[in-house]
User: Fold these one by one.
Assistant:
Number 1:
Amino acid sequence: MYAQMIDTGLTKVADTADMSDDERAFQARIDDDVRIEPKDWMPEAYRRTLIRQIQQHAHSEVVGMLPEGNWITRAPSLARKAILMAKVQDEAGHGLYLYCAAETLGVSREQMIEDLHAGKVKYSSIFNYPTLTWADIGAVGWLVDGAAIMNQIPLCRCSFGPYARAMIRICKEESFHQRQGFDVMMSLCRGTPEQKAMAQDALDRWWWPSLMMFGPPDAASVHSAHSAKWKIKRLSNDELRQRFVDQTVPQSDYLGLRIPDDDLAWNEDRGHYDFGAIDWSEFHEVLKGHGPCNRDRMRTRVNAWEDGAWVREAAVAHAQKRDARAKAAA
Amino acid sequence: MKLQLFDYLLRLADNDLVLAQRLGEWVGKGPVLEEDIASTNVGLDLLGQARLWLAYAGEVEARADAVGRSEDQLAFFRTDREFRNLLLVEQPNGHYGDTITRQYLFDQWHVLLLAELATSRDSRIAAIAAKALKEVRYHVERSSQWVIRLGDGTDVSHARMQAAVDALWMYTGEMFSVDETERALIDAGIAADNAALAAPWRAAVQSVFAEATLDVPADPWMQGARGRGGKQGVHTEHLSRMLAEMQALPRMYPEARW
Amino acid sequence: MSSEWPLWEVFIRSQHGLAHKHVGSLHAPDAGMAVRNARDVYTRRNEGVSIWVVRSADVHASAPGDREALFDPANDKVYRHPTFFPMPDEVKHI
């Protein structure tokens, strides 16, 4: 998933003249598309930004398991149940790959999880919306994963090696996610009138939050500028959002669904779809914690972590006992 | 014989399906990501096995009755009284130690059962069992290691595991009971003789529990072991609640295809 | 007591005959579980036929600062490559 509004802690993009020798050498490597590896010298702000971005991304995968996990026990066929379980399991894997990538920068997974639970680090706001019907599983796969893939493919070329490598693995697995979502939507749209209505209702609720996943408009985003210079982020929010709309409208037409935007229209001159204004006040409220599910999601994660503490501790204690016994026997 | 075979196949299928459904409840809530992934793999294996058994059950039903139900009709449109799973697998997840204990007690039986079924005179049963056996060998390896790890972990984990074992033990007797349905199929070389699995199961469990520093409970009054248990459709209170959730959507829209 | 499990590096051999390749890492309390977790995390799509795990703490790596000293000296030894030696067209099987 996508990490929104990364705070780089910087107020402006540095000029080459302001840089130290190390910084200039570092920037030169980035400009040459040489990957930065964990033990290489890097500016502190680069490290901080990456830790934040990768862990937001990791948290998003893990919290993202919950809205879809909500329907595993109620999937309407055994085939759909298996597919959904495998999909949500993949999200756990993605979270895991990403935590490991962040750990190469010297922060522990435990620390990252504690920061999430303390509200110090965010996850993608999209997961603060509820999955109310089975069609939401289709819409989430089709739209949310579709938007995520669009964000993630450029990250496969991100300047930081471990992140780029994790993203390559993730993107390979994600392509199944979007397709299974669309497949659910197709089955509903070809089904009974109630099923079709269920699909339309899901599109109505997920469309705008999906567009918001690309983050605020490009104008005046110093963080974006920095991330672009460091090749942590390679395409702008607005560029990606436009691509997403352009790719999704024909898919929606194919399904025979209506995108809930009266201003949506093909613009012959631009060669793109025009679309209506996004209600950013909703985005910021959800980000601040006022979405329909923020509290539920966090409570579920905190409970899972705390309820699992004795299990994790016991596993460590057992491994230590076994090591001690092996040493005593040797 | 065909109806007995149908019934027997449902027993095999429903154990897998119900336990997979229980494991599905854990997804996203495991104690650590690695474990979430591992546990979901077990759930997916079991769900896959359930589908193979149900598909075969539907074919057998068609031979007897001319109308055979699909895997989904069998999964979503039978009542709890028509489900044939063991009481053990329908028990609620509890904490992770409860889940692991339930899993191990079942896996240890399941692996013995499938090894027998792999030599069944019914070639379909033998083939499905041979495939499932590979998966279940891994399951029992994993769950037994967890029993040992948590049993011989901290004081807290030890106490929780012993309590889990003590609570679930009364559901283990049913695994080794044989009723008329099974008797006829055992005599025909089709089904496995559950009674014969008791000794090797007990030996394996004793060995794992010894390493886990857990006590094997004295045998209590076993639930469902005298021809009136899960295999005959007489369940605990937990199953109908689980099915209410699992079956809600197809029953709400019986005409729909998903 | 911190209950964080140690980190392990995972190497998978994708088919017989190829070398194990680093695919990522994971946490596990002991080696046995690291192998099993690696199976569940990194081979869900038939990626492998063999798994190695190594504690991350046991990996010793070359220092990035030594890159030039370690690797540049090989640059001018082009005679180690077969293409350094042009062969006449009429000479075969060499």
Number 2:
Amino acid sequence: MGTEAMLGLTGKDFVILAADGQAAYSIIRLKNDADKIWKVGKMLFACSGPPADAGNFMEFIEKNVILNELRTGIPMSTKAAASFTRNELAHALRKGPFQTDLLVAGVDNDGPSLYFMDYLASSEKVNKAAHGYGAMFTLGLMDRYWKPNMEEAEAIDIIKKCIKELETRFIVELPNFKCKIVNKDGVKEVKL
Amino acid sequence: MEAINLAGSTVGVLAEDGVILAGEKKTTSKLLDQAKQHEKLFQLDDTMFCAVAGITSDANILINRLRLTAQQHAYSFSEAMPVEQLVTSICDYKQGYTQFGGLRPFGVSFLVAGYDAHHGFQLYHTDPSGNFSGWKGYAIGVNNNTAMQIMRQDWKPGMKLQEALELTAKTLVKTMDTASPTAERLEFGIVYKTAEGQVKFRMLKDTEINKLMADAAPKEGEEGAASSST
């Protein structure tokens, strides 16, 4: 768990993800406008951890998801992609583990889904999720305000509440949150 | 290829709400105890099965591989393998043996039937060269030309499972060399949708097969009329 914050919520027909923009090298901030939310096929993957592992692992997953679609002619479902990613993490775990925590979000024919995954290769389908130190400050807020079948505006509002809480209580300042929404039409970025 | 065309007739029919495979077991001797042994039809996954024509020992190797591939897919992706992907994978394997010297190809043709969420009920035929194609009705083994001709005439779009079963039985009656084919010499398998919308595989019971074959058998006096219309 690093000094990062990644948040995710499911809504009526979408999933919303938010992540801070900090790329750190030890205690040095490399930059504060990093984008930790990757578009993979029609899905979104938020990936935290050392930038080397995160970049390497996400490119590997992304390319494999694309390859699979080219080979089969069928886009991978979110469930299949999450399962594949979990498998890769599990196999890497006893060799050269990727220190990456992920949120996997996508919308399929059977609705939106969000998967919480850590570097130990646990994977859980959830409605609200958070990674990093940020999780300690925000999960309670999500439990308080999340409800089924939320509209986009309501979900964005919860994300804003979470970021506000981080600014108030977390002693490290996490800059420039990026927020993205995935629905059946694709992916869009949300200005917070 | 020789062994495939000599194999017991094997028929596959695609219906709107299911898919059928049926095959004739070639009994070589009445001393052979094959009561509990499948010879023609093999289940590959929850909603996929195949019929075999050709060298049985080769087929066993390929069926092992088909089952393994289907489960490996389920392990990796937590989802059942789409039928076409499984067929593609086994055909890639078969193709490999046509490329290099020193090894002989697998002398096996499959009819693969199954269901997946992407393309619904499906029927495929594969040959030893590694070619495959999707069909609405197909026949391999002895008299496959006759069988294909009957199906070309009688297969209709939107056929229900029961009609398709009757067509399968009719086709088998006309291609098998016995006058009165019974369940003893036949295997029937179906993948179908239950009333609850669940997709399942099952083998037909002997009583069901006997009834189908009896209904499909040409009636007295009808024989001439049926053959003149073909």
